[in-house]
Amino acid sequence: MSCSLVDTFTKMLPGSIQITGETLSGAEIKDICDSLKENSVRLLSIRGCQLSDRDFGRVCRGVAESHSLAQLNMNLGVVSTINRTKHLADALKTNRSIQTLFLHGSPLLDAGLVTLNTALSTHPSLVSLDLGDCMLGDEALRLICAMLPPDGAKSGLRELTLSANPSITTKGWARLAIAVAHSSQLRVLNLDYNPLGDQIAGMLAVAVASSRTLEVLDLEGTGLSNQSAQVFLEMVENYPTCLRMLVLAENAISPELQQQISDLLSEGEEDDDKEGEARGSAAIPTREKTAWIPHSNSHPQMVLLTSGLGESLLAETEM
Q1: Cα–Cα distance between 166 and 173 in angstroms, integer?
Q2: 3-class SS shares of the chain: helix, strand, coil, % to 5
Q3: What is the DSSP letter of 252?
Q4: Selection from 132, 100, 106 nearest residue 306 by Cα
Q5: Nearest to 132 by CA among 83, 172, 75
Q6: pLDDT (tens digit, 9 = 90+) per residue, 169-207?
Q7: Phi and psi at residue 195, in whole multiples of 5°?
Q8: Cα-to-chain-centroid distance, residue 130
């Protein structure tokens, strides 16, 4: 008897099903669903895979029933219609175990976020969400900000990726900056390849200075100049923050300014590491990535991505 794709990938990494860019047969979908129902899967990745609407619904029902699934990766257009978004929303309303959800490169639009909102905002375990390149606008961002509750409120996201959503306006980013400033839990924020510019970067600098939790901010390829870098430099020099990593690559910023900021953050990180060793705390993981490819011309690119959570799985992920 021939070995299925699911069997192959499960043997390679127990507790994990990772399939990329394949056309999935009904038999393979059955294997995935059976594994989910048996609670033997912690990571399910079907990024860039082709499957029928019926089979997508079957996978979602398996996700709903699973008590073991911690990471779900449907990057690269798997959630391609509003009906699929509804199936996923229904699954997330029932599931209680997912900590990390990847939907990068899904054409959700604001309507898709409206559909997912209740399931995402009330999920008891979800702490890491990737909505990069999902064609989101201000309405979607308003809903996302509600997943970053202020101090003393309910639990919320610890890691958020909103890369490459160019339809979001200054008003939307301003709303996010306010939410970040007051969030009681957000540690990692990836905004790379959005046309932010210096004005929005200034808002984000204020948010970082106010935040008690934010440790990683990715602003790669966001249209910044030395003006933004100078603001961040002065912030790091003069104000105590939790920030440990600021990504400014692919901007019109001088290497000297970037190095100055990096050096100051490194000094702070060394001090924090010494304190962390005394307390037994873990280091903050980083996200490796490649340059963004526009939604309409997306091709799989292999990167290494971690949700930034101590309990999470490390997964090979395509953006």
Answers
A1: 11
A2: 45, 15, 45
A3: B
A4: 100
A5: 75
A6: 999 999 999 999 999 899 999 999 999 999 999 999 999
A7: -80, 70
A8: 3
